[in-house]
Amino acid sequence: MTFTGKNILVIGASSGIGLATAQQLHAEGATLFTASRHLSPELAALSTTHLPYDATQPVGAAFDALPEVLHGLVYCPGSIKLRPFERVPSEDFRTDFELNVLGAVQALQATIKRLKKAEGGASVVLFSTVAAAVGMSFHTSIATAKAAVEGLTRALAAEYAASGLRVNCLAPSLTDTPLAAALLNTPEKAEAGAKRHPLQRVGRAGDLAGMAAFLLSDQATFITGQVLAVDGGMGKLK
User: Fold this and answer.
1) Contact 97/196 with Cβ under 8 angstroms?
2) Ketoreductase domain spans which residues (predicted)?
3) Which of 105, 112, 116, 173 is in the most buried spot, having the most CB atoms within 10 Å?
């Protein structure tokens, strides 16, 4: 894959899957724009154009520095709050929805005209979770929000197909990133997490970055409206 001459925006690129995606796209020649609340040392090392941005706040002028044409957008912000349903306050449902769904909505509304201008079509990659398709205890809030992301993916893919804009979604399982650190911070937790997957390991940020890069690339120009599992077989195999 090559991204030479392509302008791509990665939102939530300071760590985890977003950082791994930015690193891969940078290595493959993309003209990379990143947006996050913090500029991590790892992200700063890429020498990309960084835009300070909080996905829970109005976009305002945050994206004014973007070029007139965008060839791709990846929205990576997410959350993991696992607790019994009876102990989940309604505010947690609201917070998860605002970050995962409304954050993606406002970012796309602010950039859609730039994406539509891409010759040959642009690509958008969003993120769901295996828990949106497979019922998992203690996942009510995040599963609800991410199920909405999947609906958003399909609706946008239908609406913009005639414009050549592709919209797809990745649904990972437990992935070894800072966001999931509390779920993997002991050898016992790490082993238990690995054993839940048919492939006997948890995901790595690079697993998702590689698939995101593929969906952004010219090799995936006939793929849109899809929710693709990158979950070690958890969603389909027993």
Assistant:
1) no
2) 6-173
3) 173
